[in-house]
Amino acid sequence: MSEAVSTRVAPAHSTDLLPSLAPLLHEWLPRQRWFAGKGRPVTGFSLVSATEILPVGTGPDAAESGTGLLHLLVRAHQPTMPAQSPDDCYQLLLGVRSVLPPRLAPALVGHVTTGPLAGRTVYEGLRDPRLAELLLERFRTPGTLGALRFDRGGSPIAAGLAPRFLDTEQSNTSLVYGDAFILKIFRRVFPGTNPDLELPLALARQGCGRVPAPVAWFEAAGPEPLTLGVLQPFLSGAQDGWQLALRALAEGRDFTDEAHALGRATAEVHTALAAALPTPALHRSQSEHLAAAMVRRLEAAAQSVPALVPYVPGLRGAFDAVAASGHRGRDRAVQRVHGDLHLGQTLCAADGFWSLIDFEGEPARPLPERRRPQLPVRDVAGMLRSFDYAARSHRPWNDEWAARCRTAYCEGYARASGTDPRGEPELLRAHETDKAVYEVLYEAHHRPDWLPVPMAAIHRLAAGADRLRAPGAPSPSVPHRPHPSRRPSP
Question: Cystine design at 439: which of 250, 297, 343, 454 (Cβ 3.0–4.6 Å)?
Answer without folding.
Answer: 454
